[in-house]
User: What shape does this take?
Amino acid sequence: MDTGPHNDALGDNGESTSRYRSIIEAVRDGVFVVNLDGTITYVNDSLCSLTGRERNELVGNTFDTLVESGLVESAEFDRFVTIINSIADGEIQDEILTFEIDQETEQMVDVRVSKHIRDDGTDDIIGVVRDVTERERRARAAEQKQEVLAKLYQVGADDAFTFDQKAERILSIGCEYLDLPFGFLSRIEEDTQEIVHAVGEHTLLQPDETAPLEQSYCRKTIQSDDLVGMQDARAELGDDDPAYELFDLGCYIGTKVMVGENLYGTFCFAAPHDREREFNASEREVIKLLGQWAGYELERQRFEERLEGLHGTAQRLLTAETTTDVAKITIEMIVDSFDLPVSAFWEYDATADVLRPVAETDEAVRVVGEAPTFERGDALLWESFDSGDIRNYEDLTERSGTFNPETPLQSEVYIPCGNHGIITCAATEPRAFDEIDVESLRLLEALVTEAITAVKREEQLAERGEALQRQNDRLEEFADVVAHDLRNPMTGAVGFLEIARKTNESQHFDRVEQSLERMEELIDELLMIARGDRQAVNIRTHQLQPIVEEAWSYTDAPKATLFADDPLGEIQADETRLLQLFGNLFRNSIEHGGDDVTVEVGPLADEGGFYVADDGPGFSDKQRTEIEALGDTDEMSGFGVGLMSVIDVVEAHGWDLTVPATDRGARIEIRTGERSE
Assistant: This one.
């Protein structure tokens, strides 16, 4: 049997044959030649290496020998034979097949086969075999990554799930994706690891289980700038490592969970045995995304809990009869809802020109002692009180003018409450207060300032009656408006952030930033309202069309439809307040007209102004009368907060609002000319 390529298949003479053979033997791809009856007539060394067979085991035989040895499955071989026969019969010229040649190593190859006609007219089948194992692994990894990301998105986007339910489902998805039995979300506090959520049956990796951080695998994750993946933890850590001794985990992968700029804990997966291969790039990327998702969800949950706490505090402040009552309620709220245990409240005594302590936490007394009365200029908080600005001192060791530099306090936030007093929150570590802390305290300050104003006004009144009720209603209205009106830009920020994280496109991050800026502007406007200034503050000329479109983009109703005349013209208005107006009108239409409601915005034909109409259930005659008369919100069938916010904006600009009768749906007309008497 001839064990080399036929001369006429490779060249016309011995010199050519030798030259071609040397080239074929040198290539990394496997090469074989079979005749039309399936007998192998030539193989190069690369093919022998790919199959793990000697040349004399292949030449003179058929490829059935690879099936008999278990190297190739029979189904794969049948495909190969079918293609060979099709080429031999002239049905096709060539073909490329991809299949597995070693189940143990999962080795994958591409085989390209084609017919070659020799000079004597006989035919051979020539095949070129290329190892594509890494290519196929990368393709499978990418496919698996897309599948798991789709599952994670479905869970994360489902508003019916609580964070706890989402966390457990996502941990299960991660365990399935990595083929690891244990998954857990931990929280790191004061050098202690606490398991918050977990899947798997590891005794020490269950909710509420704690361990010293120095004895945990997560310490490596916390110390690293990147996630940590250990294929063989025993080899990497050593038998005597305290984490390996305690948890006995053979492999581990974990990433940090950041809430804002602060470390929350870790998101991790592990197994009791080592792993056959390292964690690949796709797996590491998915775990990073899980950590980012957890941080985002925790941050959103934290902010929503703060808003709920503020609303509850507003209700409690309604019962306060003295400034001391307000101060005590405020400090209790800061501890219970904001988790800021070192806090105090000073009231300003205008007669003596001093700041006197009214309420403080037990932890504040323990850390720095009982709060003193501050003479003017005694401490940094006077700068904040006099300026009326919130001051966040991230590192007190870098500041001069502290009252007592010997205290262990390293960071502090001062929140002035008008000319009534000042709230302080402190911590024993630097940079302890993030953006959510500061913004939450700003909102609280508005409630406190309003409450103290109401208390002092009532203290000066001989009768407690209508005036007190108005102030209480105003305080409750403000709390409701804060919770209500922040939803529109918050919904926009959340939606665009999810898109941005998926696409990593800058324009979506820009929209997130725009939504956050709108929230900050809206907070500033609402704070001014809370202090008694209900007038628009930044009147400019604007094109109405882009404002309408931006307000609509913050709605969370993809099935709803907006029709807006283009152009809508110009308007003299405060842009932020106008966005607030349209946002509340659009939300009202969606809430009462359904997710598929149609909303229309257009100019008024008879005079300056515009209308907003929808095809929802509309208003009753009684409701129309009450809205136009600025009726009591409790009697407006659930329309209170949004429409009262709209009326606030209309009044601030000196416009007129009417609610005409319609055959179908609701229509609100706003006239921007000189207000009629």
Observations:
- The radius of gyration is 36 Å.
